[in-house]
Amino acid sequence: MIAVNDKMPAGQLQELKDGEMLSHDTSELFANKKVVLFAVPGAFTPTCSAAHLPGYVVSADDLKAKGVAQIICLSVNDAFVMSAWGEAQNAEHIAMMADGDGSFTKALGLEMETGAFGGLRSQRYAMIIDNGVVTHLNIEKPKEFEVSKAEVILNAL
């Protein structure tokens, strides 16, 4: 499992932006800047839609004021779903990234099997990445939402 002071693993993430499908190499995505990455078990799911993503939408300006160059929301969903969810949540300042096959989430060691809920999904977590290295990592316990909130990450910066 990824830990503080670890370099982010290599991988590809997809993003549908302005009608164009983009593929991001994570070595470039996290290089030479400070990034906040938070992950959710699924787009449009209750806690994710009611609290997790909205917290980052509201806190985006404050996070950027503390030197965060990019805020990324990650889920094991496809890029079309992530884009639609971002639009529904007014998340224009957040990069809505898809890990469609879960390979990046597995490389992080933060996957979970949810069975009939959706199969392979991501655990709920948030991290601060500085020039490709994890400097802060908060992983939620199952069915909890305490340590990956935007307010907690803002206070860690």
Overview of the structural elements:
The protein has 157 residues and is of the alpha/beta class. 30% of the residues lie in helices and 30% in strands. The protein contains 5 helices and 9 strands; from the N terminus they run ββαβαβαβαββββα. The strands form 3 sheets. The chain has a 5-stranded mixed β-sheet with strand order 5-4-3-8-9. A two-stranded antiparallel sheet has the order 1-2. Helix 2 packs parallel to helix 5. The longest helix is centred in the middle third of the chain and has 20 residues. It is globular.
Task: Provide keyphrases for this structure.
157 residues; alpha/beta; 5-stranded mixed beta sheet
Which consecutive residue ranges, at least 5 long each, have pLDDT under 50?
none
Anisotropy-based shape? globular
SSE pattern: EEHEHEHEHEEEEH
- Could you estimate the helical fraction of the residues in percent? 25-40%
E-strand count? 9
Strand residue percentage? 25-35%
Task: Give Rg in angstroms.
Answer: 14 Å
Put simply, the count of helices is 5
Q: What would you call the structural class?
A: alpha/beta
Distance between the termini: 22 Å
Strand order across the largest sheet = 5-4-3-8-9
Largest sheet: 5 strands, mixed
Average pLDDT confidence is 96
Q: Could you give the topology of this structure?
A:
Blueprint: E1 12-17, E2 20-25, H1 26-29, E3 34-39, H2 46-65, E4 70-75, H3 79-88, E5 95-98, H4 103-108, E6 111-113, E7 120-122, E8 125-130, E9 133-139, H5 150-156
Parallel strand pairs: 3-4, 4-5
Antiparallel strand pairs: 1-2, 3-8, 6-7, 8-9
